[in-house]
Amino acid sequence: LALMYEAGHGVPPDEELAIIRLKVPELPERLAQAVVGVVNKIRGLELRKSPSVSESLDWARSLVILNADALDRELVESTLTMLVKHEKDLERVRGALDKVLAEVPAK
Q: Rounded to 10 degrees, what is the CA torsion of 87, 28, 20, 62?
């Protein structure tokens, strides 16, 4: 089961949200939901390597350190390398960022 989580395969969004709540309890609820939504949209893109749950947790922790209260384009762009590791994948995600952030609540 841990390997499934680590690989990010087959983890439903509600389970990923529960994992983030458990591992990064200081992340505000609305932001935790936004993280899961954005990561799942990124996973929907054709990438060489989609973000794992582990990378979602790393991103969530970095957002806490940055005192983020909402996800905006600038913040996501500046922290994208926490989620996406390959340069071609980064280019693809940056190109689709408007779509990825479309339903994320604004500040």
A: 40
Which of 83, 4, 3 lies closest to 37, judged by CA?
83
Q: In which element (H, E) is residue 23 found?
A: helix 13-23
SS3 35: helix
Polymer length of the chain: 107
pLDDT tens digit string along 3-39? 444 444 568 999 999 999 999 999 999 999 999 999 9
Structure tokens belonging to residue 52: 């794992």
> Whole-model pTM?
0.87
Burial class (CB in 10 A: 0-12, 13-18, 19+), 74: exposed
